[in-house]
Design a protein that fits this description.
Layout lengths: L2 E5 L3 E8 L5 E4 L2 E4 L12 E7 L1 H11 L3 E5 L1 E2 L3 H13 L7 E2 L6 E8 L5 E6 L13 H5 L3 E4 L6 H13 L3 E4 L3 H4 L2 H7 L5 E5 H7 L5 H8 L5 E5 L5 E4 L4 E4 L13 H14 L4 H16 L20 E3 L1
Parallel strand pairs: 1-6, 1-11, 2-9, 7-8, 11-12, 12-13, 13-14
Antiparallel strand pairs: 2-5, 3-4, 9-10, 14-15, 15-16, 16-17
Helix pairs in contact: 1-9, 7-8, 9-10
Length: 320
């Protein structure tokens, strides 16, 4: 097994779940929260407290897979931070490199979820996960990682560059799942790809990095920057290349979506967790798809994460 450092955010996710008041109402190409009227009081059916954030979600997946998982992120000394620490410790994630910020609260998301459709609206306070300039790349010299799994650092390209360079100095590898803020800085993002071994993005994100409108075009252009590129496309599946093999794949199974929060984290971390455990490129894509399906079948971004020891059925996947 491998030692994998997850670099990214930590959030407490508070779910407000209802079966009728949050039904979306379409207005043109958009929708609003159906029966919620400004100034009114709305009775909610259920409330749940979960943990989330790209760094937290991925580190839990790596630990469940049997890897030595280390989470490097920011929280505060408050109840939300305590829940995150408790959850990560229970999962077997190394929390000794977490930074505690004194003048911030732990990041928190309030997720308004319609239990009928699975549609959700997320209100996020980033708090301690707003900035990452305090991250210290020399921590990697103590950790001796095999892999870095980097999620969004809210566009802090300097910190990402420091960690990517140090990772390569140590002979480790990098899987990168950039976020919205990183995608807004195309030139700096392209510069980071020279250090990146595996890049995972969705179709619309890929189109912000390279030219192209269809998956094969986007994959061709991304493959010029990284050895392994994976592009997901929601219910349409996705496409992936490792420089030797190209696969077009569908979804693992058509299941009712309870909550789509964390689906991308589950796919990316699931792929690396399975591949780092010695599985083939194809089998790792299958596991990633199954992991994403399992997560959206549960409430919370980490509750449904798989271990790699499950039995998997056949899914649509074709070698091109």
């Amino acid at each position: 097994m491998a030692r994998i450092v997850s670099l990214g955010s930590a959030l407490q996710d508070i779910y407000l779940i209802d079966h009728d008041d949050l039904v979306p109402t379409e207005i043109g190409e958009s929708a609003i929260l159906g029966k919620v009227i400004v100034g009114s009081k709305v009775d909610i059916d259920r409330i749940r407290y979960e943990v989330g954030g790209g760094g937290v979600n991925s580190s839990i997946e790596f630990a469940r897979h049997g890897h030595e998982a280390v989470f490097l992120g920011n929280i505060a000394r408050d109840p939300a931070g305590a829940l995150i620490i408790k959850t990560l410790n229970r999962e077997g994630v190394d929390t000794s490199y977490i930074n505690f910020l004194e003048r911030k609260s732990t990041g928190t998301s309030v997720i308004l979820l319609d239990s009928k459709s699975g549609e959700r609206t997320i209100l996020t306070y980033r708090g301690a996960s707003e900035q990452f300039g305090n991250f210290y790349e020399k921590d990697l010299e103590l950790i001796h990682p095999d892999w870095i799994y980097a999620t969004t650092l809210r566009g802090d390209m300097d910190t990402l560059a420091r960690f990517f360079k140090k990772t390569k100095e140590l002979g480790a590898k990098i899987m990168f799942n950039p976020g919205v803020k990183e995608l807004e800085k195309n030139k700096e993002l392209i510069d980071l790809l020279k250090y990146t071994d595996i890049l995972t993005v969705n179709k619309s994100e890929a189109a912000k990095i390279v030219p192209g409108t269809i998956l094969t075009e986007l994959l061709y252009h991304l493959s010029g920057y990284v050895d392994t590129a994976i592009i997901t496309d929601g219910a349409m599946g996705g496409i992936a290349s490792n420089g030797k093999e190209i696969y077009r794949f569908g979804i693992y199974e058509d299941t009712k979506i309870k909550d789509s929060t964390g689906a991308g984290d589950a796919f990316g971390s699931g792929f690396l967790a399975h591949m780092a455990a010695g599985h083939s490129f194809k089998d790792s894509l299958i596991f990633a798809s199954a992991n994403s399906t399992a997560v959206v079948s549960e409430f919370g971004a980490s509750r449904g994460l798989l271990t790699g020891r499950e039995k998997f059925h056949i899914m649509p996947i074709q070698k091109l």
